Structure formats: structure tokens, C-alpha cells
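Bumping with the actual sequence this time:
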Amino acid sequence: MKLADPLDGLKETGSELEEKKLTSVSIVSDLIGGSFQTAPDAQIDLTASFDPQIWYCINSVPAASTDYCCDPLSEGTSINADSLTASIPSADGDYCLSYQGFGNEADQTDVFQHIITVNSALPNLELSSNKVILQSTQLLSLNISSTEFGDANFELQSYVFDDAQSGDCNEIASPANFASNGLSFDYDATPDTITMNSYTGPSESFNFMGKELMIDQEVYIYTTLENTATSFNNWSCAGILVQIKDFTILDFATSGDLPLSSDGEFEYLGSFSSHMGGKTAGSDGKSTLYRGVENIIY
């Protein structure tokens, strides 16, 4: 049997085809693994200029390993949207969340897989952040919810890594990792341990400057919660992914209209005006900038 040509849907002519060739897709989940007392939800966001589609699946795995993860295309379900919330099963066990994003037939992301452990005997910890993409001059607000706030037997630590960790809470919270990757909660560059009776809860927010994490890359932030009164089922941990990406720089070396010199994110406060006296495509092939932009406050 002849297989379908994956490019059949792209055989347009002229500018439409050229425009589609310039697109790219990316996908990210705010949950990248961990061990939880109660099952968490994962927010999956897709960036795609054309035909956004997310395929995902969640399956029980016999061991905390991605070797047993389901295939989102053959075993999962799809949604024609650029975001979705995936709910991890509530029963105790090890689960794998697998997902992949598409922008059109020829434009797709890799398959991503994360191991999530649910164990009702673990300390209670929920983690979220206010941003997925962060500029180095911005604050990342880490939102921590726990029923253990107010209890002196529980200690909290956060870590930043430049790659994903195994999900083993004890391994993440090793003394060596704490010394080299631990985060400071009081801006003195020294890793901190928070005793949970220092806060009343049930949720608290802690801020980190983007430039204190890392610049122009993806960073993996893990938070661990230890019950120091027991040596069994005493660790919970949660991981999130944040992209550190500064705003686009304009190419002032050119004359006339200013094209983009690189990809990036741009945020501003205030207003701007522009006389629409000509335009040019940015270097990413999609963005259009107008000359005469003024009064931008950053």
C-alpha cells in the first residue's frame, strides 16, 4: 500500500507555500515531572502560526522511566487548539505524560515525555509560576501551595538546572546540588532552606530575577519539600520549565525601516505611536516593523 505523502497538504503555489515554509512550532508544559501527594494538572502550550494541533497521552508505567511511555500519535488523543490542560490520574502510581505539537503536516515538534509520581503519603506540595517565557530583567514569581505551611517539621528548597532531572526527589535535593544549584529566597546569592513554620500559607509566592537564573536558554526549576520527622515517604518535589529569553533587538545598522536582528520576546509598559511610512519584514520572515515608533517605555 502506498503511504500518503506528508507534504500533500502543503502543495500550494506562490506566497502561501513560501509563508508556510517560514513557520516553526514549539511546545512546552508547565509541569515537567516530580512526586506529588495529590495528582497535578499540566498546562501544555503550543506556538504555531498555522493549524495548531496537540497530541497527548497519559499512561501508567511499571517503573519511573520514560522507557514505558505511551506514543501520543498512536495511543493518544488530539485537540485542534494551542493549549490544553492534562489531568494526571488521582490514584497512587507512576505516570508518563507524553505530548507533541503540530503547526501543519510538515511542521512539528519532538515528542516530550515527563514522569509524574502520585503518592498520597508524601508531603503536600503544589508548584506553579506566573510565566513560561521570562526576560532576564523580569521577576519570576514561584507560587507554592501546601498544607504543610506552619509546620516546623517541613523544609523547602528550590533548585535551578540547565537540563531536566530524573525526578528522584532525594537525588535532586543532594547536598552537592544544593551547593551548586540551590536558589536564594532573599537575593543574597546563597542557597536558602525555608522552614515551613516561617510562613502561614496556604500559599506563598517567591520572586527570582531572570538574570539570577540563567540567560537565553531553558531552565528547569525544581522545588523539594522534606518531612524531617520521618525517613520514609519524606520527599515531595515538583519541576517547571521556564524559558529565559530577552526581547528582540532592532538592527540599527540598516537604513530606512528597521528589521529584526534576532528572534525574541518584547514587552513594554505605556503606549507607542507610529507613522505608517513604510514597512519591512523582520529577519524571522513574519514580523513587520514600522518606522517612526516612539515613546516606548520599558
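The C-alpha cells above came from a reply further down the thread. The CA atoms of residues 150 and 199 lie 6 Å apart.
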